[in-house]
Design brief:
Structural class: mainly beta
Largest sheet: 10 strands, antiparallel
Radius of gyration: 18 Å
CATH class: Mainly Beta
Number of helices: 2
Length: 279
Amino acid sequence: MKTLSNSCRRNLWLSISIACLALAASMFASAADEPGTPKGSRPDIDPVCRYNFTSGSANTYLSYCVSDNGNIVTISTPEGHGQELFGGEGYGFCNASPGIVEYHDYAYADSGNWDLPTLLSHTATTVKIARTTSDGIWTLTQTITQVPATPSIKIAMALKNNTAAARGVYLLRFLDADAGLSRTNTLDATQNTAAAWNEQVGSVPFSFGLQLENVGTPQFGYWSGFAQDVPDGPNACAFAFNAPGTSPLVGIDGSIEMVYADTIAAHGTKTATMIYRGF
């Protein structure tokens, strides 16, 4: 996998521009809920389960729940093996140009510059939630779908530029993964995947893990997975700051993210699609 230089990765937040985006792109060729109703008691932190999904059994078992704000609050796969409990999960993006503004919601923490979410639809297998930033510049629409056959959680994040000017943006999905409900994991990443797993050592007879994987060819010119050496969600404008680039990160309380970057045209939309899947 081609990678950005350490200086670009570590200091991206100091040199955010359309030129940097171009460089990156060249280097990396409840049933009663009514749609349209704003949800949540407050626009910032909302880690409460609202939409529950379960399928399969034993090795094909998948259970997860989604908050009003579009965070995946818990994940369990296969049966009896929780993969994310102690930390956070969610989304963030950076308005990289013109200007620099950061937005995120990682369930345990929120940037505070969001309007309330709007439920667009909810079925037995899918929930679709839209959320606009409080400055009105961006609308993020998330479609989160249960895929029993895999089993996996498919997430499509469509980011719309509501303004009359093209804007550079970094978009990401974040997970404080605690594979097997252990805070100490091994983590690694490639261009298409970021993963965390617990090692098969001592009295632990088997190891389990969770991966966050890009699906298909993104509409964004740059994309890559990252393994962070901290459990906290990143500043979306410095998404690689806590990703040391060593491979793998062993025996730490870390986190994973999948990142996309490009320019979005005036009134345009670009979509990134990814899945969570146990392994």
